[in-house]
Write a structure and sequence with these properties.
heterodimer, A: Rossmann fold, Rossmann fold, 11 helices, globular, B: mainly alpha
Chain lengths: 333, 364
């Protein structure tokens, strides 16, 4: 009996919490990628943006972490049936599922991050990771003392090669003589969450004379940053601003504002300004950037800062064209 | 005093008791994180079996688990522990994808289905062949080699998908979509044709293939001389040699059959659900197949039942994550892990208890 009463009270509280505060409130939802909500990187960036929205508006969002590819469609369909709107799909792997479900629910609004679904009720948000990577490549090229810089990717997929390709162009633009050593952490999705293996790769690169490594490997990158601390070398963070993780050995971070994309989608839906279509966010749009803050300002010399800012302005003006690996599936520049 | 358990108790009572124990342990964990375990079970069962959509998803997952469970069971009867279902399923899917990408616009579905099934079997079997050969004639332990072949399979798939088979101008490493004429019919339209309405789900005709495979494995293992030889090698290799059986050949054949069965996962995933070649469609099915076979006592009927149970856990688990946000995917894995622990590693945990009970009732 007591148990029933508890359950009833619990249900009541849950219903109160679910009651919309105002009639025009939205019911946002997020479907996270296989990496999980707390990967300290890509998914968590989206969660951060959504949390910020909740904090400012008091509107809670529902989420679901998929554990296999078949669940993407299931989750989007379920959320749409429940009347959740807008719904964010995190990661390119969901583009296909969003495309299918969005056709069946033309009144529900979707935002797909890192993927494209061409429908009148879908907003596709892409990032020019190569432009941001170009800038951190310059930082690495100007900072290295050994003339060798490194790259550690996560799973070997075109998206990560785009990071690598932009980075290489930045390095070579700043100093064509510098050698680049690149490794990928693995070929299975566990490559996104294998800091031990990434650390081994980083150590291997350090032993071959590399003194700065750019990691684009999700949670595996944490292993690279730790290896940089242990070996007194430098590392470059990715996706979120990770400078604060190890002040003194984090040279900079290539920031990809997935949080802003998530926040903007929810906020626009709330304010009635939500628009479908494809937006590609580069340096010009503030979608990607390099990070300079109190944690790394001692590592960045005025000359470096000037050169990076110059390159940034040139990319925005179109004077420097950064080749996109995914445009042609190769890195010729 | 202990007496051997009656057959029905061994086959049914102990597995059920183990599942109940596992659910009880899982319930305690749900209680610890502050949720109501009864509500959780209700959501799981209702989500997996409560409507035609849930049943569809459950049977779709069960299809994969039956394939990989059978694969492990066949190898196990030959005394082999095939940990490579994951990679064999991956390669099976590759075979299906390659055949369909080549012929989807030329051949009719009636011709594509047998071709795809054959390709899945051939590719899966081929991936099992090298570990089998190394075990049979070079003494390399099959557990080690099949595990390593899982990694080789995923490396191969990533290479092919990223560099060779990727459809031009797109973000994710996926092939082009197959022509609709090459899709294995899903159950919804098939049942609609005979006037039965069910909700949309990924369940497709490969479920029938899974049931056929069960019958085939049963007939092969217990009603053919080859199956008899295979089981003899599994029970006692020396006795088999004495009886004139060549164990090396049997090991290779058993692994080929095992790999082919695991490869059928590719038919379900590529031809039945995703309709394109992609990465990671095999994720976890090969490993869970080990638990399915253990739980199903390596018998096709048991594998079907265990496959259904794991299907319920997969689909019910997803529903649980939808309905109770505090229960994360990791919690679902814990619950599934407990069931594997209790029915696999601790399979004999409850046996002494039941043996005493039966001994007592026999005396009475």
């Amino acid at each position: 009996m007591k148990f029933l009463a508890q359950a009833a009270v619990g249900l009541g509280v849950a219903m109160l919490a679910a009651m919309p505060a105002r009639a025009d409130d939205i019911k946002p939802a997020v479907v996270f990628d296989l990496g999980g909500k707390f990967d300290k990187s890509f998914n968590q960036g989206v969660a951060g943006g959504a949390d910020k929205f909740t904090k400012e508006t008091g509107i809670k969002y529902t989420d679901f972490v998929a554990t296999n590819d078949t669940q993407f469609e299931q989750a989007h369909r379920r959320f749409a049936e429940r009347g959740q709107d807008p719904i964010i799909g995190v990661g390119f792997a969901q583009a296909d599922a969003v495309g299918k479900v969005a056709k069946d629910f033309p009144k529900t609004r979707w935002t797909i991050i890192d993927g494209i679904a061409n429908l009148p009720n879908v907003q596709s948000v892409l990032f020019k990771e190569h432009e941001g990577s170009f800038l951190v490549g310059i930082a690495a090229a100007m900072k290295t003392k050994t003339g060798k810089v490194g790259f550690v990717g996560g799973m070997d997929i075109p998206l990560i090669r785009r990071f690598q390709c932009g980075y290489e162009q930045g390095v070579k633009w700043a100093n064509p003589k510098i050698e680049i050593i690149a490794n990928m952490t693995g070929t299975t999705p566990s490559a996104w969450n294998d800091p031990a293996r990434a650390a081994e790769l980083a150590k291997g690169q350090f032993e071959r004379g590399v003194d700065i490594i750019y990691a684009a490997a999700g949670a595996s990158g944490l292993g690279v940053y730790q290896a940089a601390v242990d070996n007194k070398k430098l590392a470059i963070g990715v996706d979120s601003n990770q400078n604060y993780l190890h002040p003194g050995t984090m040279l900079t971070s290539m920031v990809k504002h997935v949080d802003v994309a998530a926040y903007n989608s929810f906020m626009a839906a709330k304010n009635g300004t939500w628009k479908p279509g494809i937006s590609v966010l580069g340096l010009k749009e503030g979608g990607v950037d390099w990070a300079l803050d109190q944690y790394n300002e001692k590592l960045i010399t005025p000359a470096m800062k000037a050169k990076i800012e110059q390159a940034k302005a040139d990319i925005i003006d179109g004077k420097i064209k950064v080749v996109d690996y995914m445009a042609s599936n190769n890195c010729k520049y | 005093m202990r007496v051997p358990l009656p057959r029905w108790a061994d086959m049914a009572l102990i597995p059920v008791a183990n599942v109940v124990l596992a659910l009880f342990a899982a319930g305690l964990i749900v209680l610890i994180i502050g949720e109501n375990p009864l509500k959780a079970v209700r959501i799981m069962v209702a989500g997996a079996l409560g409507d035609s959509e849930g049943v569809g998803y459950t049977l779709y997952y069960a299809t994969n688990y039956i394939f990989t469970g059978l694969a492990v069971a066949v190898a196990f009867h030959a005394g082999l522990f095939n940990i490579g279902g994951e990679g064999q399923a991956y390669l099976g899917g590759l075979g299906v994808g390659l055949v369909l990408l080549a012929f989807d616009r030329v051949l009719p579905l009636a011709a594509l289905i047998p071709l795809a099934v054959l390709a899945a079997a051939l590719f899966g079997a081929a991936w099992a062949f090298i570990p089998a050969y190394l075990q049979a004639y070079r003494g390399s332990h099959i557990v080690i080699t099949t595990i390593m072949f899982n990694f080789l399979a995923s490396a191969l798939m990533v290479y092919l998908m990223v560099n060779v088979l990727i459809a031009p101008h797109q973000m994710s490493p996926e092939s082009r979509e197959l022509a609709p004429g090459a899709w294995l019919p899903q159950v919804k339209p098939v049942l609609a044709a005979i006037g039965v309405t069910v909700a949309r789900s990924p369940l497709n005709l490969s479920f029938l293939l899974a049931l056929l495979a069960c019958v085939g494995v049963w007939a092969y293992l217990w009603h053919t001389p080859w199956g008899y030889e295979l089981r003899t090698v599994g029970q006692s290799e020396r006795a088999a040699v004495y009886a004139g059986v060549k164990p090396g050949r049997i090991i290779v054949v058993a692994m080929l059959v095992s790999g082919a069965l695991a490869g059928f996962v590719g038919v379900n995933e590529i031809m039945g659900v995703h309709h394109r070649l992609l990465l990671n469609f095999n994720l976890g099915y090969g490993f869970t197949g080990i638990a399915v076979a253990l739980m199903g006592r390596n018998h096709p009927v048991g594998v079907v039942l265990a496959g259904l149970l794991f299907g319920i856990l997969s689909q019910g688990g997803a529903e649980l994550a939808f309905e109770i946000p505090a229960i994360t995917p990791e919690m679902i894995v814990v619950i599934q892990g407990l069931i594997i622990l209790f029915s696999g590693a601790l399979a004999n945990f409850s046996r002494p208890f039941f043996e005493r009970v039966f001994a007592a009732t026999a005396r009475a």
